[in-house]
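Figure 2 data, in text form.
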Amino acid sequence: MIDVAHLTKRRGGRAVVDDVSFTASPGRVTGFLGPNGAGKTSTLRILLGLDSADGGTALINGVPYRRLRHPLRTVGALLDAGAHPSRSARAHLTWLARSNGIPRSRVAEVLDTVGLTGAARRRVGAFSLGMGQRLGLAAALLGEPEVLVLDEPVNGLDAEGIRWMRRFLRDYAAAGRTVLLSSHLMGEVAETADDLVVIDRGRIVARGTVAEVTAGHSSLEDAFFALTGPGGQDAGGGA
């Protein structure tokens, strides 16, 4: 489970994350939405121990990321591409597995899961954007984590890849795991997520099920722009 409570982060005297609170529960896919610069990435970086907060807490299964004994076995993250371009996909995943005490057999398993078995020996620098995303997901899955935190996971995927990702995340959550998904593709989020958290200018403007957030609107896209457009935070977004 992910529990973010009263999280605050300031940069240059401005609150880029302002009293943010939400949860992402096991068995559900939670969509995390917001315009560019709204505070999504800052929130995720704090959650994953890549940045510090000025106030509040961001916990995974009740503890901060930095206090997890076996991080990759608890939470898998796709936030920034981290593979060296001269390494092969297999070498990259093998290094991650060894450094985290994960059986080497998992490397072949996750490569198969994400459809990269045939490209296992290719250098990462030669990968397309979509292949890089699949490799990032493979790395996130190495430790068979209870929690997945994914930032724009379908970026660069073709239509079939997007469809595959949707099914995969739905099945992953259905097995009792927690999935937090950040994306700018409203239609895809509407089909994938159970719950939504919408952030704008550092503050939560809406949270609830997809049906609750989109109530009174013809689509998630319409609801999103009503909540984050001019005057959106003053319109009572259900936060």
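Caption note: The beta strands are 2-11, 14-24, 28-33, 55-60, 75-78, 147-151, 178-182, 195-200, 203-209.
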